[in-house]
Amino acid sequence: MHRKLCSSEKWAQTTKDLILPWTLDGVDLGDDVLEIGPGYGANLRVLIEQVPRVTAAEIDEATAALLEQKWGDRARILHADGAAVPVPDASFSSVVCFIMLHHVPTAAHQDRIFAEAYRVLRPGGVFAGCDSQPSLRFRLLHFRDTMNTLDPSGLPDRLTKAGFTDVSVQRHPESGGLRFRARRP
């Protein structure tokens, strides 16, 4: 059920109309963006229309192959863990991730993703993203699936420990989801 939802046109439209505008409101992505964990590409298809260069790092090999088939002519697709992206330091003007961190099985692995986002960002670059928070519907959707949600109160410290400054975490007034922004000094 979860995979069906995330690969649907309805989800892609929700992403375009609601999720990305709220998450990226006021964020300057620059000219070269890395998306960590693009899944089926709902966010990727919006980003390639907004930014000159987009790279997507997808951990699942079959999903990365699908993304390459569909978007490979407009974005660079890497089959890679977001905690170990095979690019040089300071490669990107921004790094983004949308509603995927709860799929990362441990907080330690999430922290490695934060550290990697810091490593691949240029000085002054922004790390921005969003994720869902627990609810009955969200738990049911993730039955027999990884669901390791972020603690909004602890996230600023975790991002600061990765090296970021200007960290902010906000909750959506209706959905309760969170968005974050952090800068590499």
TrEMBL record:
GO terms for biological process: methylation. The keyword NAD does not apply. CDD domains: AdoMet_MTases. GO terms for molecular function: methyltransferase activity. Keywords: Methyltransferase, Transferase. Residues 34-128 form the Methyltransferase type domain. InterPro entries: Methyltransf_11, Methyltransf_Superfamily, SAM-dependent_MTases_sf. It comes from the Bacteria. This is Methyltransferase domain-containing protein. It comes from Streptomyces ureilyticus.
